Amino acid sequence: MLQIALTGGIGAGKSAVAARLVARGAALVDADALARAAVAPGTPGLSAVVAEFGPAVLDPAGALDRPALGRLVFADAAARGRLEAIVHPRVRDRAAALVAAARPDAIVVHDIPLLVETGRAAAYPLVLVVEAGEAVRLARLAERGLTPAEAAARMAAQAPAAQRRAAADVLLPNEGTLAALYERVDAVWADRLVPFEANLRADRPARRAPLPRPGGPGGGGSGRDRGTAGAGGVSRDGGTAEEHAAAGRAAAAARAARAGRLVGRLRYALGPLLADVAVVGGGTGEWLELVATTDRPDEAAAAARAAGLVPTAAGSESADPGQPALLRYVRPVRP
Length: 335
What we know:
Number of helices: 12
Largest sheet: 5 strands, parallel
Helix content: 40-55%
Shape: globular
Strand order of the largest sheet: 2-3-1-4-5
Strand content: 5-15%
Order of helices and strands: EHEHHHHEEHHHEHHHEEHEEE
Radius of gyration: 23 Å
Distance between the termini: 42 Å
Number of strands: 10
């Protein structure tokens, strides 16, 4: 089984991505749907909401008046926090029950609008983020019947786009046609998610290149391999020195972001088993090499599966074909 997270700003098209993944065979855990069920008429969740916010959040039939509640919480961070404290634990319990009922080979997609805001991204070995520009999202929200002020308030209540982008292992732009979005989703499903799940289930690393030497340069290759600049500042592959420098900076930034996400996942998955974890080696190759300091390496290797790494003779290696990584284990040095 592979559990991944799907998120995106309101109006970005997250529901369309979720529907396409379900059509391809995914099992969906929809946080919005679970949240609605948690505060349905007659539930303890609805009683708790009414106790916190008053009977004005009920409609004449006794159900939750979502627009009325939205006006109270979307512009008030403290009120929103009180609502989340009621709803989120109930959603997590319902989600756990759905996962327990899924097939052993399932790809479970957790559709979580507030994944970044609640600090839950590190709980999943892969995060999909759907993205669209503010103007596109505002237009879509207007089609849903929201006023510009209501749409702006809901967008402001969510994390900035840059923060969601930083959490993304896969970024799905969605400003074009639905067919174009589906094509991107289908490619991610076939090339990334299906092999990732199969690798996890088989305890098989997704190794695409030789393992890096311990503490080595990360497999980036020499400057000649990448097309070094010659006389006049133009490389043999046609790019200028400035273009290669810019590409190098972008690659280094992407690598650093990927390393940060993996470190966060390992800290989350290993918890108290982990004394420290650090990225080692250098270069700009696709491999990430990390070292975990732990007194219990066998238990740590088992726990690292939740971060998408499987045990191997070298330590733990990524099962994700899009993120090659090696984690070695060392014991703490005692004085």
